[in-house]
Structure prediction request, 210 residues.
Amino acid sequence: MTDLEQKELMVQLGRSFYERGYSVGGAGNLSVRLDENRVLVTPTGSSLGRLKVERLSVLDMDGNVLEGDKPSKESVFHLEMYRKNPKCNAIVHLHCTYLTALSCLQGLDPTNAMKAFTPYYVMRVGKMQVIPYYRPGSPEIARELSERALSGKAFLLANHGVVVTGADLLDASDNTEELEETAKLFFTLQGQKIRYLTDDEVKDLENRGK
Ligand SMILES: O=C(CO)COP(=O)(O)O
Ligand SMILES: [Zn+2]
Prediction:
């Protein structure tokens, strides 16, 4: 894809997230790897519903701004994950309602915030590690995500939101939607006896991919 096509796709996905209530106000940020030296990121403070192609930020791998507006304050963690994991080509960070609600619960398993009860959760992300709470934009988030960048695709930021990676922007977006839907089901099922997938069922799905 050309730079322009990536920028247009980012604007389109941002608007789609916004229109469906996945993002509100200026929360959340998106990024995609343009090539081995450059990353496209949403500008800081921007509503995902009103992104403009010409204002999107292009950064080099050291965080220098090559084009566009001042980048997201979370671009430090986005760059860190791209540096660490060559298979990570796009990142979605949202404060979507159900995943953020989950991130506020006490006693989450730090190795996996949601035990699998549907196959697509396993096929798309597998598990969701929990990063302890830090102030948004703080370097500790980047350090914690860097340490885990090779061991998962989705991460819950405690009391904050979610970080989801993918092979490209569409893949990262689809992973995020699947995850938010799973969290919605998790809360819908509160008070009911859930039949979780068995270890064998999970293994069978992991071996098949999506
Ligand atoms: O979600 C956010 C911080 O965690 C939004 O920050 P930015 O507007 O700087 O991208
Ligand atoms: Zn955030």
User: Anything to note?
Assistant: The mean pLDDT is 97.
